[in-house]
Specification:
The chain has 272 residues and is of the alpha/beta class. The protein contains eleven helices and ten strands. It has helices at residues 3-23, 61-71, 74-94, 108-111, 114-126, 147-158, 175-181, 191-194, 202-216, 229-237, 254-271, and strands at residues 27-36, 42-53, 57-59, 101-105, 134-139, 163-169, 186-189, 220-223, 242-243, 252-253. Strands 1-2-4-5-6-7-8-9 form an eight-stranded mixed β-barrel, surrounded by five helices.
């Protein structure tokens, strides 16, 4: 069997399992905390979809998201993610965590489809949350065919108070063009620049200048993939405001997140 044909069969099988997984409610959300790097307070979370297939176990998003996009199941999956995440945001607000920010990823497929974007917009508008605490994240490597159309749709979300973040910044060929065209508020520096950081290497110079440029353009900066103390120290020294990574906290399910936020809030109150 040729490899191309085998790959097609595998993708068809994965798509069938994806549909069944959605029907059987096999998907769940984990949350990656985002920290204020100076105070180490949890200021926000990024919603990350996880798929637990009973016969296999956890399946990586790197495996099923591309299949979801090709099979158009991404629309159904993203609508579920947004409903689930916003429902959780409502609950946090009721529990006294109204200041907690929520980031949700949105695919290029949805952004470039007026029909499906309208559905997402309608879903978001139906949840009466504090929209100023919501961020929509776009992957910098997205293959966006019409930036102007996408920019107009993002501006509609910004009218609600929603912020726009450019994720994985620095990894694509059109980083600066995206900054110039899209109504971005936040850049998230990709972990490929953070993980090899040391005071004298090339990545350090690039990262330092990305932070400086972002601040001069009045963007908030979030560093991804912080795994070592020296990376954290470098980011603090270079005035990076926020960060995510295993050094700070791994992605966790919603029930554990609530307890973690309460502990962090208690520690902050004691310190004050």
């Amino acid at each position: 069997m040729k490899k191309e044909y085998s790959d097609i069969i595998t993708q068809v099988q994965m798509a069938n399992q994806l549909q069944k997984g959605l029907d059987r409610k096999e998907f769940t959300l984990y949350y990656q905390p985002e920290f204020d790097l100076k105070t180490l307070e949890i200021v926000g979370v990024e919603a990350l979809v996880r798929w637990y297939q009973p016969e296999i176990g956890f399946i990586s998003p790197e495996d099923f998201i591309p299949v979801a996009e090709k099979s158009k199941l991404i629309y159904k999956l993203e609508q579920w993610i947004i409903k689930k995440a916003l429902s959780q945001k409502l609950q946090w607000e009721k529990d006294g965590f109204s200041q907690l920010e929520l980031s949700i990823n949105l695919s290029s497929k949805t952004l470039e489809s007026e029909c499906y974007f309208n559905k997402i917009e309608k879903i978001i508008s139906s949840y009466k949350v504090d929209y100023s605490r919501i961020t929509i994240e776009l992957t910098e490597t997205m293959n966006l065919t019409n930036l102007n159309y996408v920019a107009d749709r993002l501006k509609r979300l910004k009218k609600l108070g929603i912020k726009i973040a450019l994720d994985d910044f620095g990894t694509g060929f059109s980083s600066l063009n995206h900054l110039r065209t899209l109504p971005v508020d936040i850049i998230k520096i990709d972990k490929s620049f953070i993980q090899p950081l040391s005071q004298n290497n090339r990545e350090a110079i690039i990262t330092k200048n990305m932070i400086t440029m972002a601040h001069e353009l009045d963007y908030r900066v979030v560093a991804e993939g912080i795994e070592m103390q020296e990376q954290y120290d470098f980011l603090i020294q270079n005035c990076c405001e926020r960060g995510q990574g295993f050094l700070l906290c791994i992605p966790i399910p919603e029930d554990k997140l609530g307890r973690l936020i309460k502990v962090c809030k208690y520690k902050k109150e004691i310190a004050v």
